[in-house]
## 1
Amino acid sequence: MAELKVNTIGMIACHGEDMRLVLDKTYASALAGLDGFSHIQILWWFSECDNPKNRSKLSEIKPYKNSPEVLGTFATRSPMRPNPIALDCVQVTYIDHENAVIGLSYIEAFDGSPVLDIKPYTPSLDRVENPVVPEWCSHWPKCYEESGNFAWENEMNS
């Protein structure tokens, strides 16, 4: 098997409500054409959770109040997983091409979280018109815009 090498392209900067993706200036030219996309998908590393114990966790005991008693890691969005990779769809507030910075409305990452990649959100490839989810989470918001006002704290057991 070929050696796998993943390079970080930047980091998340969170200072209060000011959230940005700060790219390494090497990647500034990769921002060409990103203007006009309202949302992007950011793949980032859950660096705060990267340790052997968390990487070996393959199931969770009832992580959500309405979930089955045991959920496999791949049925959760937990940072405790074999590769602590996170995926967030975020709204772009501005793009500063000169300084290689993308303003974000919100991201659940920590300040300093390494960023692995960025992809534009395109409904033709990323939106599922009629997704089906298990009954235990069917009352969750149906879209990104509704998620910000949802009482997620009432869903989690920990």
Note: The chain has a mean pLDDT of 94.
## 2
Amino acid sequence: MSQTGQPTALFELDRADHVRADPDALSELMGMRARLMKLHGLTPELDDNGCIKWGSLTEADPDAELVFLGLDGDRGCFAAVPKRPVQVQRGEFMATITRLHDRQFGIYAGARSLVDWHARHRFCAQCGAHTTIGKGGWQRNCVNPDCGASHFPRTDPVTIMTIERREEDGSRRLLLGRGLGWPGNLYSALAGFVEPGETIEEAVRREVMEEAGIPVAQVRYLASQAWPMPSQLMLGCTGVTFHEHIVVDRTELEDARWFSEEQVREVMSGRPGLFEAPPRYAIAHKLLRMWLEKV
């Protein structure tokens, strides 16, 4: 906390699961010291340093549902749920997270995913009756006494992968793709949703085969990133193939091609190259750097 009593610009929220199910504790945290994330729809207000701006709960619509995001020390932090679902254009989302401070990404990702989920789930998927917010915003409950179903925020797993081809001379090439309608000359790692019943490894192999016609042998997990568009968990992987011929699925990709290690290194160093690199805040950027470092 700063000496003025305002939340510090950079802090990590304690999600405080023990508080969510305690109505008395939540009510106490909604006092004068509570803070509200400043959102316009799903877009946060940011200061000049790219940090999220916070206000007081008095700034929220009196009828708005409030989601408990967690604790900054002993101070409760909340976000208000829009009265109706909000459509955010990809360009607006990208412009926001380009400015967002790296250490604020997780806080925003959690808040955005939660409030968007609440705005879209006001009715029970089991019986169609109204639902009410529960457990501080980490649950919705059906009001129908004959149903009483509880619903929980979902996270959709997505694999994103760097696929390497090793040449006989020991050199390496990296498979990158370009999505439909992507700006400029951007190329990135291939990605796709994990389907029901699949392992991460199976999803990597299926997606690469579907999008580029390349069979993948070894698959290894590397890292993950929350991606609130609207509520995904990006599972960063790397894979190895010995196949060269690419067959692009034009319903999924505009293009896919092999790039040499030198070409990738040139682009990632900031020099103009054969393609534009993924933005620094995306896990794809990290995966390309890890590939260059042979992680």
Note: Residues 121-153 form one domain.
